[in-house]
Write a structure and sequence with these properties.
Length: 494
């Protein structure tokens, strides 16, 4: 009994210490301000960086969570009313904002090679392609990602962890941040990557309809399905252009096709997908056997897979099988999020790979860089762990309608433009389905002049490839400039 009481006392002491430590470390409101400069397109850009935390409040005005953010402001700009402001989110759900922060649009970039592979020593260097020359940027970590944490343990997790809950509290937080920083007059943009596109698509509608904050633009980087229906034959067929791109990259296509440039191949495969494959898959078991064989032959031509494998899968090869099968004869797998990356499994047999070689390479480089950057460059001191991927599950995915919500926000706001950025080798959120999203958001074709698509020869995080880092940032730069209305031009239709 005495031993049990001693053990219980130690447990309680440890719990008490842990709670006290957590309370001590989580600062509901804090900030660290530093100054820096970066040269962009030959121009010196001085800036102020504020790394800090700001509360999420409940309806009673009590703080229930603390969100970590990093806010970059160009300091040689006097008229903030004309200065664009970009709110940046990553995805997951459960991912911190470090990916785009330290590798894409921010003033520093990750230490990686030209194709995006990790290098040692880990760290960062100045980013000459940052968009800080044309816009201020706020990188935001949702609850339980990065250094953001729940501070009221009585608040239900459902307040934060679900499609619509996430949109609601983050929109309220953005509204408050905008007010605190006196940026209501500024042109405003949202950028989201991966699940972050679901987030910002819904936030555009929420900000506009609940907080009366109207945006100039939304940038969707490697977008999800955003609740738009692409089930059945469409879902099965739409991966074919991605398969063709990846197979071309790994040089497994027939010689005549391999000799062509990717820009020549993809329009042909896209047309075949829309005009032949989707109608054929719609017929299911009614498809003529000879036609089925001819389609399998054409799909083998476009993918480098065998006709036998394609027929065994009834013309619908799953992505997981493709990543394992494509280079099976060489003992290699290809990545999901970036299919340029190759991996090795314990055995060559099986239906899917053991791990995603792209994601493991990225985690390898980002974690040490972010921990270094926060402490040594931003001067933000904390004992909290920076959660690349935080505990946010179970995540409520019910009642998702974010693609249509974004479309509604565009319909209501003639100023709003939307740009999609996709990597041709992204198998997680493939580029052709991203195009399909745009078509379904605008079935009448009335918003085509405000919907823009840009594709890159890389994967999910296209900016990790040096050539695409330059190009994709320039595309954002031009998107922002072109979505700023001329002075005196009213927001109205014809």
């Amino acid at each position: 009994m005495k031993k049990q009481l001693l053990t219980l006392a130690l447990v309680l002491l440890t719990m008490s210490w842990s709670v006290a430590q957590e309370k001590r470390e989580i600062k509901i409101e804090s900030s660290s301000v530093t100054n820096g400069e970066v040269t962009i397109k030959g121009q010196r850009v001085p800036y102020k960086a504020t790394a800090g935390t700001m509360p999420v409040w409940n309806e009673s005005g009590e703080p229930i969570a603390s969100l970590f953010f990093t806010y970059y402001e160009r300091t040689d700009v006097t008229d903030k009313a004309k200065r664009p402001l970009v709110y940046s989110f990553n995805g997951g759900p459960g991912s911190g904002s470090l990916w785009m922060h330290l590798a894409y649009t921010g003033p520093y970039k990750l230490n990686i090679d030209e194709e995006g592979y990790p290098l040692q020593p880990y760290g960062v260097s100045k980013n000459p392609h940052s968009i800080l020359d044309v816009a201020d940027i706020v990188y935001i970590d949702p609850v339980n990602t990065g250094y953001s944490r729940i501070v009221d343990k009585e608040t239900p997790r459902s307040t934060f962890f679900g499609i619509n809950a996430d949109i609601k509290y983050l929109s309220d937080w953005v509204k408050t941040f905008t007010t605190r920083q006196n940026r209501w007059q500024s042109p405003k943009y949202l950028i989201g990557e991966s699940y972050g596109t679901t987030r910002v698509a819904g936030m555009a509608h929420e900000l506009q309809n609940s907080h009366w904050m109207y945006l100039n633009g939304v940038i969707l980087v490697s977008p999800t399905g955003m609740g738009l229906d692409r089930s059945g034959p469409v879902m099965k067929a739409n991966y074919l252009p991605y398969y063709a791109a990846t197979s071309w990259y790994h040089e497994v296509l027939p010689s005549d096709l391999q000799a062509k440039d990717l820009d020549e191949i993809l329009p042909e495969v896209e047309a075949y997908t829309l005009d032949v494959l989707i109608p054929a898959l719609s017929k299911g078991g009614m498809l003529d056997p000879e036609e089925r064989k001819q389609i399998a032959k054409k799909m083998a031509y476009y993918t480098g897979l065998s006709e036998k494998v394609i027929l065994e899968h009834a013309l619908a090869v799953p992505t997981s099988y493709y990543w394992k099968e494509l280079m099976r004869d060489k003992g290699l797998t290809v990545g999901r999020l970036d299919s340029r990356y190759r991996g090795i499994d314990q055995t060559d047999a099986g239906e899917r790979y053991d791990y995603d070689p792209a994601l493991t390479a990225w985690n390898h480089a980002f974690s040490p860089a972010m921990n270094y950057y926060a402490k040594n460059v931003l001067k933000f001191d904390t004992d909290l762990t920076y959660n690349l991927f935080g505990p946010v599950h179970p995540w409520d995915r019910s009642n998702e309608n974010t693609g249509n919500q974004l479309a509604q926000a565009m319909l209501q706001n003639p100023y709003m433009h939307v740009m999609t950025q996709s990597g041709y080798y992204d198998g997680g959120t493939d580029y052709f389905n991203a195009k399909y999203n745009m078509w379904q958001m605008d079935p009448s074709g009335k918003m085509q002049d405000r919907l823009h698509f840009r594709g890159y020869r890389s994967g999910h995080m296209m900016y990790l490839r040096a050539e695409d880092l330059a190009t994709s940032n320039e595309d954002i730069r031009e998107f922002i400039k072109n979505s700023l209305p001329a002075e005196g031009v009213p927001a109205k239709y014809w």
